[in-house]
Amino acid sequence: MPTKLPFKVSPKVETVECGNERTGILEFPVLGDITVREQAFVNDHLATNSTFLEIARISNKIAKSQRIDPLAAHRFLTRVISESLGQSDKKFSDKEQGWKIKYAREIEELSAFLLRNQWERQTVTAAALIRFRIEGMEEFSIDDARDLAANLVQEIFAFAVLEQTGDREMLSDEEMDKELEEKLGK
Which of 64, 85, 89, 122 has its CA 20 to 30 A from that of 23? Predict the structure, then answer.
């Protein structure tokens, strides 16, 4: 735990519980943000999983093959992925429908990459919060987090997102999908 600072006004002590009787309940201090140490841990362990680079790689492949602007290919891929998440009802042109078929393998690989990347982000973030916020858990690892129940990891991740955004309501699965969609657009 960090050294106690001589605050003029001490931070409000608040905690949140994640989990249930089946998964176990963990209590986390609410800090109102992710700590530098937590963010560095997450960044260090996710540095090679760049969503942007993977989308750019496939966008460039489509752009080169179809002789279109890479940004147009990127927008196309983002719409396809959004559609697969049930987040888009936009129609595709006949040409784009053809691209969906022609690049089905790449699109499926991208979808699988994004799902793995999102799950890894949740797992690493849960490990970071357990490791740095729960006393006595300094050695808790990402592999340890992989052994937790999936819904517990998701709940801890949702808490981490709330800490970053300041929003106190837990995110639904749809909101987590929307967050992933927004990251795809960047």
Answer: 85
Q: Domain span at residue 93?
A: 51-113
**Contact of 123 with 145, CB cutoff 8 Å:** yes
C-alpha–C-alpha distance, residues 178 and 135, integer Å: 33
- In order of 79, 82, 166, the CA distances from 141 in angstroms are 36, 32, 26
Same domain flag for 148 and 58: no
pLDDT digits (tens, 9 = 90+) for 31-50: 989 999 999 999 999 888 78
On whether the CB atoms of residues 74 and 164 are closer than 8 A, the answer is: no
What's the sign of the alpha-carbon dihedral 52, 57, 58, 61?
positive
pTM: 0.75
| β-strand partners of 19 | 25
Three-state DSSP at 126 gives: helix
The CA R_g of the chain, rounded to the nearest whole Å, is 20
pLDDT digits (tens, 9 = 90+) for 92-130: 999 999 999 999 999 999 999 999 999 999 999 999 999
Contact 17, 25 (CB under 8 A): yes
Largest CA distance in the chain: 66
Integer Cα distance of 37 and 43 in angstroms: 10
Q: Residues 162, 170: contact at Cβ < 8 Å? A: yes
